[in-house]
Protein: Dehydrogenase
Organism: Peribacillus loiseleuriae
Amino acid sequence: MMKTVRLGIIGIGAQGGTYAGFISEGKVKNMVIGAICDIDPAKKEMCAEKYPDVPFYDNYIDMLESGNVDAVVTTVPHYLHPEIGIAALQRDIHALVEKPAGVYTKQVKELNEFAASKPELTFGIFFNQRTNPLYQKLKELIDNGEIGTIRRTNWMITTWWRPQGYYEQSAWRATWGGEGGGVLVNQAPHQLDLLQWICGMPKKVYSNVKYGFQRNIAVEDEVTTILDYGNGATGVFITCTHDILGTDRFEILGDKGKIVVDDSKKITIKRLNTPESEMSATMSWADVMAIFTGKGLSDIYTEEVLEFESVWGAQHISVLENFAANIVEGTPLIAPGSDGIHGVALANAIHLSSWLGKEVELPVDEDLYFAELNKKIAEEEKSPVKQ
């Protein structure tokens, strides 16, 4: 049985560099850097100084076939995640794919299907928010029926402020051909994953999306989406990159109470003493008037507040450790790679609803989405359409 996983880092930019730092500092149990790959010659010089004993490659296939790595992480542009993931698995190398798993479900499905044909290999996705104790607790509360059946979800996550200069760092940023979208594929994939992981996938979406609303970009920087869960429950998801005083508030209403998450730091749970439907059926109007004319609501519910501290980097380290533990000890994955398709499907549906100007059902029409995406890429005239 393997004792230490030699990780190949494909792309040593901001994210890849962060992971390399954690591993080289001994912060990730059962993991060492096996090799580094990047197409930028300047990165080779940097790595020679910083990681002198680590082999460096400018071609990821060469790295995969070098014998120096047992697993890889794909810190590369979004379109490349499925391609590199498949290439690794083909060579019996474990794959940890960065979020999002891809840009469109058609390519992610191909990755998932190939990974399923290699069950002996570990296939994970870097959903570090799933290791966040706050969201693990939130999922536990919902799964245990603490607030009953979900009636409505609302998540406003606008804490992604990005100035124009951010988009001008690289030519591929905020383009359909290079990045495949804006806030939905770059900043908000974690929330799209958490939303479906905790509350389930909606059956339909209807969205109002603004492209280049407050920034000189082709892709979306403002999103408002209505979710329909198919059982009467509804939701709203709002995100953007132009709110410098952003809000992060996630509210889940159930028939037995309500949970509010503020700033991804605090959970407030209000549990009704009696389910709302039962109160509606049994309370007299006099009882109701007593509540609204002075008695108040305090007698009908209890309140619990849970505070969480966030340690920078801890969640990323947890994903890397969990990935290594799955390879070494068979520990279950917190974020199996196959789960990556759900958030991509949701983002695709939000885009498609906006492009078509109508409500869109899930699972989304993959061929239609792909055709519409290619229209955007062709109009942009910056890169070839996808095949």
Q: What stands out?
A: The longest strand covers residues 220-228. The domain at 131-310+343-380 is CATH 3.30.360.10 (Dihydrodipicolinate Reductase; domain 2). The chain has a mean pLDDT of 96.
